[in-house]
Design brief:
heterodimer, A: 283 residues, alpha+beta, OB fold (Dihydrolipoamide Acetyltransferase, E2P), five-stranded mixed β-barrel, B: 188 residues, Rna Polymerase Sigma Factor, Chain: A, Arc Repressor Mutant, subunit A, 10 helices
């Protein structure tokens, strides 16, 4: 009892002397606002990256490689948007951490919360799809704005050269090879070592997707599939990406510009991504 | 004094925050024994206990504006005590226990221990048993059996769902029984 009295005296003496003070209610308000904002921000970020991931999978060649079965796995993994997935998981993790650490919702088991967060990100991502946010970000990738620096590494993965797969439009047909216009480059494909016979004859202007192995400048195809124009990945992507960054355009053979009028037109006009994106691959 | 005793904890908090800081002594009076009792399960050294108890009331006072007066004050204060106790354990990396005679009877009654055994001997085993348990089981057992808190209150103190409190309690009891069973002091 005397111990309790002593504590009471000591604490009350501290309070009376002003050494122990009440923290302002505004500090708690600011803390709550900060935590709330961080939580909302992480959810918005998760929704945005879910949307970008969905857009990437829809617009890129990544998922199409799975149609080749095990042969397409390397190309699938090579083109997989790891960075988007990592940031998406990170955003959900941060939101979960905020809930866990601050006890925002300890009444429900954390498993439910985790499922709820994923659902929230998915619903938010779905809503952003309707608002065409990913397309807008894609369009801005070619402007000289700061957001470009942030989003380009995340979305330009499918425009990079691949070692195990490629997608593009047939530009030229030779005896044992074809040349294909990919978003980044014109690539020569060796079709002499195909493991499966082609069901349809190849012709210029067709869209193809191939898996195999890059050997030097030549891509040695193991399997090729003809793809409908509507299903062609990257057709929604900007023409600038389709044919590489501006400095690379000088290297595009002139005959491409001459023979492919509309594509050439796009290139020559140097329009932004959205304006002539469809022309990029349209016959 | 009469006015003070008529006020609920939550009303007292409002008074302390808005007008009369000295009324905080009433809160200390109401809770110093209870919180001290709770902290004693974690801290045996009386000097350390005093320091931690004092810290609990200082932190509670400093953070009074963080308390939502629509909720119960007691779990909020126990939460602070709980955190302080854990911080103290982490700081000194100690596993301490002490049960007084009354607590010992509660344990005896609630976990079905043999009556015929030497209490003094058994008490040491219970202490050892609790000390061997993981913190999460030990804390919930202490809060439920010794502090006689409800599931809802334990949920608020430990920041876990009520269903988890039930599970922890059930498992905690089982573990304690198993530990004591090894020493052959518990009925089947």
């Amino acid at each position: 009892m005397s111990q309790n009295n002593k504590i009471e005296e000591q604490v009350m003496a501290g309070i009376k002397s002003g050494k122990i003070k009440l923290r302002s209610r505004y500090i708690f308000l600011a803390e709550k606002l900060g935590i709330g904002s961080a939580f909302i921000f992480s959810i918005i970020l998760a929704a945005l990256f879910f949307n970008l991931l969905f857009f990437y999978l829809k617009a890129s060649d990544n998922l199409m490689y799975l149609s080749f079965g095990s042969r397409g796995l390397f190309a699938f993994f090579e083109s997989f948007p790891y960075l988007l997935v990592v940031i998406l998981i990170l955003a959900i993790f941060i939101a979960g951490l905020i809930i866990k650490k601050t006890g925002l919702s300890y009444k429900k088991p954390f498993g439910y919360m985790a499922v709820g967060l994923v659902l929230l990100a998915m619903i938010g991502g779905g809503a952003l799809t309707f608002a065409k946010v990913a397309e807008r970000i894609e369009a801005r990738m070619n402007c000289n704005c700061p957001s470009e620096m942030f989003f380009r590494p995340l979305l330009s993965n499918d425009m990079e050269k691949r070692n195990s797969g490629l997608a593009g439009r047939i530009n030229e047909i030779g005896e044992d090879f074809i040349t294909v216009q990919t978003p980044r480059d014109i690539i020569k494909i060796d079709i002499s070592k195909l493991e499966k016979e082609l069901e349809t004859d190849l012709s210029t202007g067709l869209f193809v997707i191939a898996v195999g192995e890059k050997k030097g400048d030549v891509f040695e195809a193991k399997n090729i599939k003809i793809v409908n124009e509507d299903e062609m990945p990257m057709i929604r992507r900007g023409v600038n990406e389709c044919f590489g960054p501006p400095e690379d355009r000088r290297n595009i053979p002139l005959n491409i510009l001459e023979t492919e009028g509309r594509v050439g037109g796009c290139l020559m006009e140097k329009k932004g991504a959205g304006s002539c994106s469809k022309n990029c691959f349209v016959k | 004094m009469a006015i003070n005793s008529n006020l609920t904890d939550e009303q007292l908090v409002v008074v302390v925050r808005e007008s009369d800081k000295e009324m905080y002594s009433e809160i200390i009076r109401r809770y110093s024994s209870k919180i001290g009792h709770y902290l004693r399960k974690f801290i045996r050294n009386s000097d350390e206990l005093e320091d931690v108890l004092q810290n609990v009331f200082i932190k509670a006072y400093q953070n009074l504006y963080d308390f939502n007066t629509n909720r119960k004050f007691s779990p909020w204060l126990y939460r602070i005590a709980h955190n302080e106790a854990l911080n103290n354990l982490k700081k000194y990396k100690k596993e301490k226990f002490s049960l007084d005679e009354t607590e010992w009877e509660i344990v005896d009654e609630k976990i079905n221990l043999k009556d015929s055994l030497d209490n003094k001997f058994l008490k040491e085993d219970i202490e050892k048993g609790l000390a061997q348990m993981k913190d999460k089981y030990r804390e919930v057992l202490i809060l439920y059996f010794f502090e006689e808190k409800t599931y809802e209150e334990i949920s608020e103190i430990m920041r876990v769902p009520v269903s988890t409190v039930g599970v922890l309690l059930m498992r905690g009891k089982e573990f304690l029984k198993q530990i004591l069973k090894k020493e052959k002091y518990v009925t089947k």
